[in-house]
Design brief:
12 helices, 8 strands, alpha/beta
Amino acid sequence: MKRFLRRALLVIVVCWLVVTAGSLGYNAFTGGTAAPPPGLKYVQAGDVNTRYETWGTTGTPVVLVHGSVESVGTWSRLVPLLAGHRVYAYDITGYGYSERKAPYSVEHLAAQLLGFLDAMHLGGPGQPRPMLVGHSLGAGIAAEATLEAPGRIGGLMFLDGDGLPLPDEGGSWVQNLVVPPYRTTLFRMALGSDWLIKRIYKETCGPSCPAPVVDEWVRPFRQPGAEKAVWEMTGGIPAVPAERLALLRDVRVPASVVFGEYDTQGGNAVETATRVGAPAATIIPGTNHLTPISNPVEVAAAIETLAKRVRA
């Protein structure tokens, strides 16, 4: 038995050495970064050098706050349908092409959003108050910014996101289990698998979504600092506690809740509307979590409905 155990231990050690050497070799040959697309615009938003885009020059301003793993590109199908508004979108730190800057807490991300409003001359004295449309993770960021500076915000939309921590929050076990160099290897292998990216996209977006351009989703994660940022965020998404979200009921900012019918990632639409004091949630039939991509017409209509309440 002792001989068997020694041999088994030897096999385990040899396998570990082989896997570790393979991981280190793979990482050494795949460590390059990708150049960002040309022509990107940046502005200082809080303490983050922030990539952004703007469209239109008149109408009620709308600021689009994307979700996890997303970027300004998430809104490309929606923006043309908001022609009656001044529309602004930016990459939250940790994603897209904005500077990666910790901590990736909801307070820090809300500070970036409020800093972006400063840079765009929105919500200050004598300036127009924007509607914030937060998708998925962005819903929590937009909600926190509204709670911190309600007088600067004209309206708030929870789009496919309830703003709450995930029920199984506490991803630190992943950080403890998957350690370097293996986590780097797994991350880069996932980015290099077009099949995996398309599969995740299809399951998240639904059958009515256009085929993804894989490079548009992957390239942001090949920017300097992206791998470190992703790992620092595995401990949990930035979110707002339920009791703090409930304070929105006493804030004089019109709110709305819009969810895809089959969305299982954003939370519960009905409970969210009740929690924040919004009217009954708008449910977009037959769609999943990425409604700005799958159903931009319906999302644009919901934004117009909120805009009417803001102007009333």
